[in-house]
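Researcher: Here's my situation. A collaborator sent me these components and asked whether they could plausibly form a single complex. I don't have experimental data yet, so a predicted model of the whole assembly would be a useful starting point for our discussion.
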Amino acid sequence: MNVPSVNPLDSMISADRSTDASYDRIKAIVASRLGVSPAHLDDDSRIEQLGLDSVALAEALVAVAESYAVEIAADTVAASFTPVMTLRDLIDAFCTSVERAQSDRR
Amino acid sequence: MGLHTTVRFDPDMTTDSGAGHSLPERITAIQNMVRELSLGACVRSIAGGLAQQLLDSAGGDANAVTTGLSPDLSEGLFATNSSIQLIRCDGMQVAVGRAEHVPALIETGGTVADRVLLTAADVESGNPVLVVASTGGQDCSVHAEPNVLLAGAGFGRVDLDHTPVDVATIRSLADPAWRTRVTACIAEARLLIAHAAIELAQRVIAVTVDHVTRRAFRSGRLADLQVVRHRLVEATGRARVATEYAWSVTDDWERADPARSAAAVAMHVATAVGEIVESCAQLFGGSGYLTDNWISSARDDIAVAGLMLGDPDRLRDCLRDKRCGGRALPAATSRQHAADERLSADIWRDVAPEIASWDANSTLPREAYKLFGRAGLTGLTVPVEYGGQGLEQWQALSVLREAMRFGLTGLCTSIGAQSAIALPLLLAHGTNQQRETYVRGIVSGELVAGVALTEDSGGSDLVNTVRTRAEPVDSGWVINGQKAFVTNGPVADVILVLAYTNRAAGALGMTLFAVPAHAPGCQRLPPLSTTVLRSAPTGRVVLQDCQVPRDALIGSVGYGLAYVSRMFDVERLMVAALAAAAASACLEQTRDCLSAEDGLDPHIAAELIDAHLEAEVCDRFVERVVRHSTASGVARLDPLIAKSTVVDLAQHIIRRCRRIVGARILSREVLARLVADAAVFSVYGGTSETVRDAAAALILSGAARSAESSDE
């Protein structure tokens, strides 16, 4: 379910943001959720090994959505998450979600 | 050998003339030395540096001089023991006596330090003096000590049999300025050892994390066992707390009394590192005792580190409050309240007399919320444009800390549910209308907010315990479920409800709603009768086909748990701050209680000094984490550490107070309330067990170690 944003500031904020979902930027967001530097995260680790449980993932998703000022439909993303997916796959999934949300808005 | 020379501690760095090296830089050098060499090497360097500093001569070989100070002067630094007299013999000044456990005396190859700086009693003047004796002569014999003390530290014994001393080097400790300088140098050496010991303890934890993640156990790894994970969290917590305390003292070094500061760090670190290494070494089983296992030597080194830091009884004496005269009790920690003066003690003094009647009814009257609103207490961190005070989080905590002196844990909990959760949620994710209506109303005290997360099936693991569901309908949403232990629930005007909107999506299937209390189908039940937090109205909220409009939605669908979860960091830090403040308040009460009596058992006095120190340590940790979090985003582990380690330490202090006060607690209302309410610190805001589970996941993923290195 994609609920329209109710925050009128969103459109103003997004004007200042880069419109392309970048792998490194999203990785930095995930790293900050874990309280580590992105350099300490191995992209091939399974996300469960990194301590990213479902709540942490939800927080990371919301942080990504806020960073790009887009609405990412939570339930469609939730369906693609598994604890054994790699960090790389997770970040790619986030990238795809951001891009889809951006094109929906355009 | 190359390694040995490259990281050799530079003694010039400890002298004033070695300008350019700040205290933090010297600490970093010592930490590197622990990592690359050993604690023994650190001790040797620190001892050599101290001697150089005291001699005030920057030149010379690093190992040319060392220290043999008496415990009367050094509070047992390096465990050195010396009993030496300076006498006049044949027109010369000669030293007679012995110094044991002198560090840096004997080099690895057997080379002996050229000179030893010693404390001696000048028989003629009756004053203690510092003298320098040469080890070369036949009147002075040097013996290596069996290697029970740190390997590499070069411990030895010096026997002086009428050894001539250079008259020019004799410095009387009766000279106050010189004495002050000597004391400061010794304090600095003690601080460096403390930092070195913590560094070694951190390494022990890192090695242990590595061990338990590799070690097979049954069908998995040792690290899969909850008991192992919790033990690691406890060790990591002790290390984090000790590290922050040592650095907070280091940061204040120039402003505080160095002898007192160093003694405080030494006392705390000696206990903490001992517990850390025992806890970790246990996880190695029998192999932890094999001499070729690094952990066994680390265990031996850390056991000795306590001795290096000094004699606990003498150190404790440094913490006695001199102003107490013979009463030998420490002063209550005097704190600087950076928060607005208008917000400090007065309001609590007004409120405190009312608390008994509020307690009796297990609730707060509406007037109380309005009073808090008028005093600015509810919106301490809310921006000024919404009627708040616009304070930083750490300033807000210092206001609540003041309230704890009156035993107002329940009140702080009621205010905290609004200020740490409801208001930040509405400010961060609410619509303009929600912010205008609710935030302004709550800040002024006209409205009361409750936060409804927990259900009967539990509250710490929301993904698996929430049953409440919200279904979309044409007019908005229909919510069904029951929420338990809703703080402010019985009197709330608006209740933030977490409900599943898509059960299959798990953590991404929950949504947050601002439910008006008058919404059809929303029923607030009367306050629960509880034994703790009596004045925080807490109760059940029943939602039966509860209809709310579309604009009750907070933020986005599916994001509710993430929003709430991010607020938990602040909540956990707040609970830890309350726990630390409750411990300080209990100590203050205990002190008052005992002051009424004549004579104080010395064991109890000692226990109170130790407890005061621990309370100070807790307080500093929380304050530093909160301050740091406002600057650069909080390290995720620290709020969890605060909620588990600090709460444990604080509850331990409170139990000690209860034991010391005994039956006298029956006539002490504030103390009785503090003690009763303290039990809940390990339950609300996530139980200690859940919090340790979460912390263990971070530690085992290596996050903790990486966070350490990125902090530096």
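Model: Some features of this prediction you could bring to your collaborator: The mean pLDDT of chain B is 86. The CA atoms of residues 289 and 296 of chain B lie 5 Å apart.
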